[in-house]
Design a protein that fits this description.
Blueprint: E1 8-11, H1 20-37, H2 43-57, H3 68-84, H4 90-106, H5 112-121, E2 126-131, H6 135-145, E3 153-156, H7 167-177, E4 184-188, H8 191-200, E5 205-209, E6 225-227, H9 233-247
Parallel strand pairs: 1-2, 1-4, 2-3, 4-5, 5-6
Helix pairs in contact: 1-4, 2-3, 3-4
Length: 248
Amino acid sequence: MGLSRVRAVFFDLDNTLIDTAEATRSAVLEVIKLLQSKYQYKEEAKIICDKVQVKLSKECLYPSNTCITNLRTSYWEEAIQETNGGAANRKLAEECYFLWKSTCLQHMTLAEDVKAMLTELRKEVHLLLLTNGDRQTQREKIEACACQSYFDAVVVGGEQKEEKPSPSIFYYCCDLLGVQPGDCVMVGDTLETDVQGGLNAGLKATVWINKNRIVPQKSSPVPHYTVSSVLDLPAVLRSIDCKVNMSS
């Protein structure tokens, strides 16, 4: 870590600032209820939702002209057909997808204590939101949780040539804020993208949000700091700046 004070903090969005995992669980429950009550599906309802979750977990960064609505509706269509057999049912797939999506977005909120933390931090350092993912999907989440006003800049991976963990997107963020990589801290919940990306770009520090107390694999990138909640970040930043003061 360099000997300058922290000048900027880059935040991941999903499962760092907003509880995307919980929002998704709520959405899945709503779709299961729909399939069981309106269409008399039984155990098939959960199987369909599980299949969609697997397809989502394998989703890659697609070209900017890819329609995410069509793509994700297709996941539901395929999952329904794989589970039930028979002809494809696009209409049902659309109903499931739009219910899933709207419920997800309803549950994506920025907690009051997180808002307060961001407001206080921004008095001292630049704040930037750096999120991977499809442009439309991530922009809808940003709008749903109304977080844009807490940041000096917002960067969506799907709008750039490369996403985290590529160093180029971190350098782009530094340029936006007029800072050097050694002035910046990356905060996120994913070792392979947030932490590895911060390490690749030579940031001052990386902070891993390990809410579920996961034990990382030996081959995983090693963060400078590990916390259980993003609300622990101010203490980490004080610690970093304290080390700078002691060194100088």
